[in-house]
Amino acid sequence: MYIDNPEFIIYVAAVSFALGWIVAKVAAYFGNKFQARTRDPRDQRILSLDAELRVAQGNVDKAKAKLEEETQALKELQNKVDERDKKIENLTDTVTNLKTDLKESVMKTRELREELQDRAAENIRAEVKLRDIETELSVARASTDLISTGVLDYTEDEEEEATSTVAK
Q1: CB 8 within 8 A of CB 2
Q2: pLDDT tens-digit readout, 24-48
């Protein structure tokens, strides 16, 4: 009865197609639901890479913070080194100036010593001359005193010497 009608076959085919499509969709939905429990290895790989990325970014942030701290510490140390270099340079200049002053002082001291030695030598020479003059003066006084007292009479001795030299 219904099979004899060609329109009926078309309706049955269309309804069968529609039911098949609906059943396939429902089966696919439930099939995907069960497959969702077992993830795709690619999804797991993506999730693990994402986690590694987050960890790496955290490490990078920590490393940046540590780098900033170390950079600040380096700047402080560099400032200290610069200050010490300036102090060393100042001390080196001071030492150079002191060496120059010392050399000048030594040269002046040597000049003064030489001058002192010259003056001492002149004083010694003057004292020697003074002693010689005093000695000569004392001899002259003694001679004068002896002549005035008559102990020495050169006039008689000269005549005797003159006669004794003629007689010979």
Answers
A1: yes
A2: 999 888 877 666 566 677 888 998 9
Nearest-angstrom CA–CA distance, 32 and 39: 11
Residue 125 CA to residue 132 CA, distance in Å, equals 10
Distance CA 18, CA 109 (A): 127
Whole-number Å distance between alpha carbons of 127 and 86: 60
| The model's pTM | 0.42
Residues 6+ apart with CB under 8 A from 102: none
Matching residue, tokens 């429990």:
37
Sorted by sequence, the CB contacts under 8 Å of residue 143 that are 6+ apart come out as: 152
> How far apart, in whole angstroms, are the C-alpha atoms of residue 165 and residue 168?
5
